[in-house]
Amino acid sequence: MGQEHRGTIANIADFDITRFRTRAGPMNAPDPLIVDYVKRAGFGEVMNLTESKVDMKFILALCERWRPETHTFHLPMGECTVTLEDVYMLLGLKTNGKAVYGNVQQPNALCVELLGVDLIEGEGRQRGRGQGIKLAGLQLAYDDLKLNEFSDEESILQKTRMYIMLLFGKFLFPEGTGNSVNFMYLCLLGDIDAIKTYSWGSAVLAYLYSSLCKCAKKNSCTFSGCAFLLQAWAWWRMPVLAPANPNSFAFPYASRFNAIGLDYTNTPLSKIIFYRQLLDRLGPQDFIWRPYLELDHVPDLDEAAIWTTKSPIIRFTTVEMHQSDRVKLQFGMHQGIPDPPEPDCLGRWHLAKVSEQCFQMLLPL
Predict the structure, then answer these.
(1) Residue range 286-343, pLDDT digits in tens
(2) Cα–chain-centroid distance for residue 130?
(3) Sign of the CA dihedral 134, 139, 140, 145?
(4) DSSP 3-state assignment of 147?
């Protein structure tokens, strides 16, 4: 990217950090009557993490060190990145499953069929924007749908789908505007038991990579990926930057930083100058390559088997490369000198339309 990268000395000096925003925001706990259904859909772990807070200045400091050519952070002790393993261990999301992919253009009637309310062609706050459902209207419909022990299953399913869409729009896949969620996800939410068969973890990671690549450009002001995932990853890997948590925590391990009473005494909360200085001075002892080894959760073997793969990861119109070959130390392997990025890497994965990207996936590398 050269001089277009936000991490150059000149671009760092020129950028007004008060303009930078993340779009992920906290959510309330789900209605108790839909909790079992949310678990059936595969989001039982991540639903306990949604009240988290994000330090925007820390996210900006990380964006300054992201390289879109390699999908890795370039730090003093080497290259590192968020991997499929991190998504599973931190958020508890499935990474082994079908690609999150489908037709992005859906009939408006699908909204009424699956949510029980028209959030696309409705009136006022319930009127969508193009293929986007306004989060305010979705939240209002969710709050208005009251459940009790006599509620029929269809009503419970409708409220469950509303919650999952809110989870997507506010936490996992926040849009750049911050006020809508894409309608396209609904086509995968019809069968509550089929939802968990998709690799939502790889979709979250693909969208995070895409957001990092966009924010690596100078003057980019909006980070629209799952910022809490990125923050939790960095705090686990670089404890010198992390707040202390005196409380107990369990799987998923992002819960370590989703607690009340975090101690920021020795960390530069919202002070980007100190974040930059600490990142620049990281030594080999300051980065933990394998932070989950001593923890008590044993992942499913089918999940763990794909974490080291170098392959495209997909979220509908987003296709990014999971470049595990450049961060083998994160998997306990020997890391040789990585190959240089392909000459067309940015054009191949960042500038093509999704149809062209999917076609290129079939071509030999």
Answers:
(1) 999 999 998 999 998 989 999 999 999 999 989 999 999 999 999 999 998 888 877 6
(2) 23
(3) positive
(4) coil
Helix (H) or strand (E) holding 236: helix 227-237
Amino acid identity, position 2:
G
Alpha carbons 220 and 179: distance in angstroms, whole number: 18
180 sits in which H/E element: strand 180-182
Paired sense of beta strands 21-22 and 222-223, if any: parallel
271 burial via Cβ count (<10 Å: 0-12, 13-18, 19+): middle
pTM attached to this predicted model: 0.92
Residue 347: left (phi > 0), alpha (psi -120 to 50), or beta?
A: alpha
d(CA 164, CA 35): 11
Mind listing the pLDDT tens digit for each residue in 259-286?
778 888 888 888 899 999 999 999 999 9
Between 200-215 and 84-91, two packed helices, what is the crossing angle to 10 degrees? 110
